[in-house]
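F.,

This is the one I mentioned.
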């Protein structure tokens, strides 16, 4: 393995014959120090980014190398790229699952081999090193974003990864940690799928429909605060967290539609060049008025649970959610005047001050 001085410059590269190289040079095209089989190499580099020193620098260098190679391989050699060899959900999903574990450990500050009596101490140390860990989180979520993209179907890959993360997020103890995991998630498609799983889990009667605006409106009517998240915080804070995730879901789903994120990388490039319009489902064709009515019913349900007046934090998030819902609704015929009138109606029907 690389020495401590060389650790920041260590990286991973794959040969055309499905071998992997461990390099200790500034230029990925320089001569290699060691050549080992793919699976063995992954086992050798694992200790470098799960333990200090140099973890962050090593992670950043690896991610940058993966990104550069992916860009170079986009059109003709994606199947032979480094990322495909080490982060493919089709070929080596166990590697992706390990990245998920490292990310959860970084967010919570709890390693997977620590005995219970050390957990509180680990969390305390985690809170004192938040900036460094935030950079680590970003590098690991970037690796997951690459894992979503390297196979032919980003939708299938995002589902696999989200299913694995979901098992962990239900047991993350603090809201700040759950939000850190979700907000640092670079792949909008992956975040959208993970939030979809959370809200499916929170519904008494889950819906089997595919992700769409209609499904988000279903969550508005049927979701409740997750039992796992009902810790010692006040009731309004639990609703506040749910509002935060609903807004995140709307924003992520908008990105999924508008940026063609369900399409493969090569197909997406063609769609962007052609300036193709987003491919909408029938369940995305929801009128602006229908969205407003669902929002009003949701506000009534929240007021019944929390009473009057609603806390300022809740009011602010509700207003943001209404704006996002209004922007997401399908309104091909709208004129600027109609938008202005709808906005006035929206403010008039709000049951709290703004």
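My design for it:
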């Amino acid at each position: 393995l690389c020495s401590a001085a060389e650790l920041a410059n260590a990286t991973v590269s794959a040969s055309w014959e499905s071998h992997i190289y461990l390099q200790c040079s500034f230029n990925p095209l320089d001569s290699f120090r060691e050549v080992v089989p793919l699976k063995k190499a992954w086992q050798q580099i694992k200790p470098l980014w799960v333990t200090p020193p140099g973890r962050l620098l090593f992670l950043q260098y690896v991610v940058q190398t993966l990104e550069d190679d992916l860009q170079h391989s986009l059109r003709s050699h994606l199947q032979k790229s480094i990322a495909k060899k080490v982060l493919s959900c089709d070929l080596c999903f166990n590697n992706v699952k390990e990245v998920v574990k490292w990310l959860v450990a970084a967010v919570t500050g709890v390693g997977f081999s620590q005995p219970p009596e050390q957990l509180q101490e680990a969390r305390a140390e985690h809170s004192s090193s938040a900036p460094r860990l935030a950079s680590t989180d970003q590098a690991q979520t970037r690796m997951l974003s690459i894992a979503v993209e390297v196979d032919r179907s980003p939708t299938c890959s995002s589902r696999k990864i989200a299913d694995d993360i979901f098992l962990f997020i239900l047991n993350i103890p603090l809201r700040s940690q759950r939000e850190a995991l979700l907000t640092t998630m670079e792949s909008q498609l992956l975040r959208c799928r993970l939030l979809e799983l959370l809200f499916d889990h929170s519904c008494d009667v889950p819906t089997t429909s595919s992700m769409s605006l209609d499904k988000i409106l279903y969550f508005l009517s049927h979701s409740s605060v997750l039992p796992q998240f009902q810790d010692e915080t006040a009731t309004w804070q639990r609703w506040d967290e749910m509002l935060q995730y609903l807004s995140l879901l709307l924003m992520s789903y908008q990105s999924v539609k508008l940026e063609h994120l369900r399409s493969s990388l090569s197909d997406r490039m063609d769609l962007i060049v052609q300036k193709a319009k987003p491919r909408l489902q029938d369940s995305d064709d929801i009128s602006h008025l229908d969205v407003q009515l669902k929002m009003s019913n949701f506000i009534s349900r929240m007021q019944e649970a929390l009473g009057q007046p609603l806390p300022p934090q809740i009011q602010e998030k509700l207003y943001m959610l209404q704006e996002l819902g209004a922007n997401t609704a399908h309104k091909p015929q709208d004129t600027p005047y109609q938008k202005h009138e709808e906005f006035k109606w929206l403010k008039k029907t709000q049951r709290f001050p703004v």
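Strands lie at 10-14, 19-24, 34-37.

Talk soon.
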